[in-house]
Amino acid sequence: IAVALALRYGVNRLDGAVPATVERYGSAVTGTDVHVAGVDLALTEGRADLAGITIDNPNGYETDYAVRVGHASVTLDVGSLAGEVPVIDELTLDGALINAEQREKASNLTDIQSHTTASSGDAPPTAEPGRIIVKRFRLSDARVLLTSEYLSEPEELQLRDIVVDDIGAAT
Fold it and tell me: In the 8-state DSSP scheme, what is residue 129?
């Protein structure tokens, strides 16, 4: 009983630590605040479910956030963690709202992308870039809200579901 309680306590602590880790590293990479409402881990299955992921906008933009994902699910090939290249069997994002806000010649999404690219350049030039393989990426029930000085009002577009296989598999 004590072992079961200890394991349960440890998993509950991980459920609390994962959002903080995602928020810390996500914020460092994007240059904006990142928030995670909740996490449910199934370690023996190599699965993590995250709820309410929000990537805030860079300074100077008016919409509340750049991206909000209702639910994300990640399933790992646990055996691949011992190898050189970790493998994600499936990464699913459901219920995403992407606020694409354009101001003059800039946009919130390109500003975030620029920061992300600059962040990856912080590693020493001799370092091997991190590599992962995503066997299946799925984006479902996603919308884009376009806001621009060239539009009289924001325009919302529903995206078709997107499925991409074998990301990072080719070397």
Answer: P
Which residues are bridge partners to 130 per DSSP? none
Name the DSSP letter for residue 159: P
CB within 8 Å of 54: residues ≥ 6 apart: 34, 35, 36, 65, 67, 68, 69
Instruction: Report pLDDT digits (tens) over 125-154.
Output: 443 456 889 999 999 999 999 999 889 999
Q: How far apart are CA 119 and CA 141, in angstroms?
A: 30
Confirm if 147 and 63 have CB atoms less than 8 A apart.
yes
Q: Long-range contacts: 13-17, Cβ < 8 Å, 24+?
A: 14/41, 14/43, 15/39, 15/40, 15/41
Which one-letter amino acid corresponds to residue 20?
A
Q: Which residues contact 158 (CB under 8 A, 6 or more apart)?
A: 142, 143
What is d(CA 103, CA 150) in angstroms, rounded to the nearest whole number?
Answer: 9
